[in-house]
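debug: dumping io for the single-chain case to check the tokenizer round-trip. Nothing else runs in this session.
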Amino acid sequence: MRNTAPKNAAEIEALETREWLESLDYVLQAGGPARVGRLLRELGDYARQKGVSQPFTANTPYINTIPAADQPPFPGSREIERRIKSLVRWNALAMVVKANKLEDGIGGHISTYASAATLYEVGFNHFFKGKGDNHDGDIIYFQGHAAPGIYARAFLEGRLPAERLENFRRELKPGGGLSSYPHPWLMPDFWEFPTVSMGLGPIKSIYQARFMRYLEDRGLKKRSNCKVWAFVGDGETDEPESLGAITLASREKLDNLIFVINCNLQRLDGPVRGNGQIIQELEAIFRGAGWNVIKVLWGAEWDALLEKDHDGLLMKRMGEVVDGEYQKYAVESGEYVRKHFWGADARLLDMVKHLSDEQLKKLTLGGHDPIKVYSAYKAAVEHTGQPTVILARTIKGYGIGEAGEGKNITHQQKKLNEDELKAFRTRFGIPIGDEDVAKAPFYRPPDNSPEVSYMLERRKQLGGFVPSRKVQLEPLKTATLPELFSEFHQGSEGRKASTTMAFVRMLAKLLRDKEVGELIVPIVPDEARTFGMEALFRQVGIYSHVGQLYEPVDMDTLLYYKEATEGQILEEGITEAGSISSFIAAGTAYATHGINAIPFFIYYSMFGMQRVGDLVWAAADTRTRGFLLGGTAGRTTLSGEGLQHQDGHSHLLSLAVPNLISYDPAYAYEIAVIIEDGIRRMYVDGESIFYYITVMNEQYEMPPMPKDAREGILRGMYRLRASAKKGAKAKAQLLGSGAILNEVVKAQQILEEQYNVAADVWSVTSYQELYRDGHAVERWNRMHPGEKPRVPFVTQCLGSAEGVFVAASDYVKVLPDGIDRWLPRRLAALGTDGFGRSEGRGSLRDFFEVDAKHIVLTTLVELARAGSVDASVPQKAIAALGINAEKPNPAIS
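debug: decoded output
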């Protein structure tokens, strides 16, 4: 009798494994997946109790998340959709090729859309909801480098004429062109969101999805099943902004958010993770953060092979190959793939012995299979309780063949020769003859063709075209605002207050206003108490989708920390990048949601323009409206905090943003005038601008508003105090802004009382506005040499002023230097160039030489240079004022 007992430990282990698997199959059949999950958890707990230590993993096997048996039926015509996709591919490629033939080096990207075509087309034909007059639509952040494909589809839809495509990346041509990437500033009726600065699309989409919930929870927007889609490159996830906020999405259970990560395994220079697996890395990150993860790795041809993989050999092999090798398979022959992938085990070779080398080469990846992509999208749209990320495996440059498919050079590929164009044409069945193909002509079937008819019908069923940016809302009603702000025109009547305190009171009044109150969106990155905003906690509450599930530790105080589902404050925590993403979502709600939301984002000014300048630029491109408030501003006004906190250059950085209006006000009435006028310009007149206003924490008496100061406040400067000194020979014009304006006022008094100098004091609320106005006037005069020259506003103010000009601010000297050319005489500028110090205000202002005594000295030196005082006067003043002439230069010390 033959002995059938296992002969060695390996056989015994295999037998045990098989018995366990058979038992698991029984439980699965009898109790279903939920019972299997509970059983596995209980087994894991029991094993840990017995001292079995299992290494943690957040990964699932390197296969599709959705088994073939669970795929829903595909609802459309696969053949027509394939032809549409082929036409889009051709026109996208032709657009870039033609552009670079017409102008060498104009650039453009072929390979990104080539890899993502199926990901987009399945969305366009079955999922992306368009906006209409009576219904919302999906919010879609398109991957910037895929722009040619989005343009090509719009061309087929009849939305963009061929002439615009001819002028891709040549926007200044007659008739207009197409911007390189998604830019709402340049194409305000087409693009909604700029995304091509890597990493900004993902973080903005997260806060956009949360802001949708905020609007719904506060009753400003009807609840809907619309989604926020973010298309992201796998290489893009190395940017901190891409993944830095993903826990917010899971914490807030944002099941209205879907990430689609195009995992073509390549970035600009080479593989994303040549020695690893970016898909498994991302799966672990997102699963660990609480997201629903769907992997779409293998096309339908792999289903039968995986079905035969009873021992898990194929699945194991898939999981052990690194991305650099997968990239190699994409460019090598079927023979190479058979030898190096399947040849790792004889049993794997046996599994594919019935397939030719050509068939092995043609095994598709999941991101190129519309059935697999449709299944993933449907599952994502229907999933509740979590955001979803789809990790779709693709080949970069798919379809362009020898010109760069799967190669490291493919991202930079801009041109194809005639043979490469013919090969692409033939592969995708484009009806263009050999005699024309070298010209890379655009091709669009007739309007009544099956392809165009199908496209238009699908978009009609889904609610309209995307992308599309529409602004359809009534101007804001602001009749109550003049009275609301009038309080601040009266001054503080002897009481001391900071400009931050004044702003917070304005904000509190705006929140109570019957016309605009519900539209105000206060945003703060965990500094509300620093800015004196804690009273607003009780007044309007802090937004939380789940309300407040605990009793706050300060519940017995008047100003306790109150969270509420209908709360109005967005308390973002310590994240300026997240906060400004909320600011962008709120500030573009007029276009995205048809709601005139008015965001006020207040933050440490040092951590604004400097830290999130890229997002500020994106806000400008997106035509964001609202107010950025740089709190604790001024390099010498924020005492004690030191180098990293003291801001003396944010106004220099803001100057570079064309539609950002910046002010450094000193008094409450200046802020009131600026905010009231800003609301009018943005929400009544509909200007695509936003504001940056610095506010300080130094307390001093707020004077009443001088008569006729309004125009000057808004245009950049006005005379605050004329000299009372009559008949003095020496005269001066002193310019001050922000908290340093008070030092200028003190200097005026010293000059008049001790040095017989008649000095006028001017409040400069915005050097940026004066600078822009001056250059705009110069340009107009240059373009109209035969007409009466216009006069810059700063020249209107100071052109006939007597004496010397001295300016002092809490910011770098280049700001006042920027208006020097429009003054009748040179300007001496004092500012805070250099690193801050941990000191009090008096010491800081002495160190940076912007206090009253240095303003006096500078004025006297300028007067001596002009011959208005004797040269000995400033020499004696140095000693009299207690100035150390030999102290280190603050700009470099």
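debug: round-trip ok. The mean pLDDT is 94.
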